Amino acid sequence: MSNNFNTYYMSQTPLIQILFLSVGLFFIGMYGLLTRRNVITMLMSIELILNSVNINFVAFNKYLYPQKLEGLFFTLFIITIAAAEAAVAIAIIINLYRSYQSIDVDDADELKW
Q1: Which of 80 and 109 is assigned the larger pLDDT?
Q2: By CB distance 3.0 to 4.6 Å, which of 23, 45, 78, 108 could disulfide with 29?
Q3: Helix and strand numbers, DSSP H then E, in the chain
Q4: Taking Cα atoms as reference points, which of 55, 60, 71 lies closest to residue 22?
C-alpha cells in the first residue's frame, strides 16, 4: 500500500509549488503594469496576471474538487475574455499610434478630456 501511495504522490506536483508559480507570475505582471509606460508591455502584464489566475483556478479545481469542472470552465471563460480584451486593446494601440506616432501612455494625455 505504501509503495502505491509513494508512486502516486511523487508523480504529482504539490499544490504549494503551483501556487508559488502563480504568485510569481502575478507579481511579475503587477510590476510590469505599474512600472512600464509602453501600452504593449502593460497589455502583456495584464495577460500575465490573468494567466496566474487561470493557474489558480485549475490547481484548486484539481486538488479540491477533481470530479467537478468549475475551475476549468472559469479558465476557459477568462481565456475567451482575455482574447477579446487583447483584440480591442491592439485596435486602440493602433489608433493611438496613428494619432500620436507613439505608444507611450504619457504622450496620450489628451485622452483624459
Answers
A1: 80
A2: 45
A3: 4, 0
A4: 55
